[in-house]
Design goal:
Elements (H helix, E strand, L loop, with lengths): L1 H9 L8 H9 L15 H23 L4 H23 L5 H28 L1
């Protein structure tokens, strides 16, 4: 289920013309916070957002197709911790408050992945 939610959250980033709007919506917390004008994306920033969207579609599509793959679940948990760390860094550098919401969701996802790996490991041993 989490893979489908992540897919819905990242897929719009892969669509040229939609990525900037979607990113501003996410970073503003759905419009709860205003973003400073300095948070606009350059052409290279838009390209990186689109590449991230494509990566998100591929990664979350794989997780959705093979939810019981212990390797994917483990990698996902580790990646979520790394992403949470990067988001905390960007927030400390003046990023919007919405980044803290994403830190919480990433850490919750890492805990869910960790809890999922244990039963998967036991199932693969029998």
């Amino acid at each position: 289920m989490a893979a489908w939610l992540d897919l819905a959250a990242t897929a719009p980033l892969a669509v040229p013309g939609l990525e900037a709007w979607w990113l501003r919506l996410l970073l503003s917390g759905g419009g709860w916070w205003t973003l400073p004008p300095s948070w606009s994306l350059s052409a290279s920033g838009l390209m990186l957002a689109q590449l991230s969207g494509v990566f998100g579609i591929c990664w979350n599509g794989a997780r959705a197709c093979w939810p019981g793959d212990r390797r994917l679940v483990t990698i996902d948990g580790v990646a979520r911790i790394a992403v949470a760390g990067l988001l905390l860094r960007f927030h400390a550098l003046g990023g919007p408050p919405s980044l803290l919401v994403f830190v919480v969701t990433e850490l919750c996802g890492a805990v869910i992945a960790a809890l999922a790996v244990l039963p998967l490991s036991r199932r693969n041993l029998t």
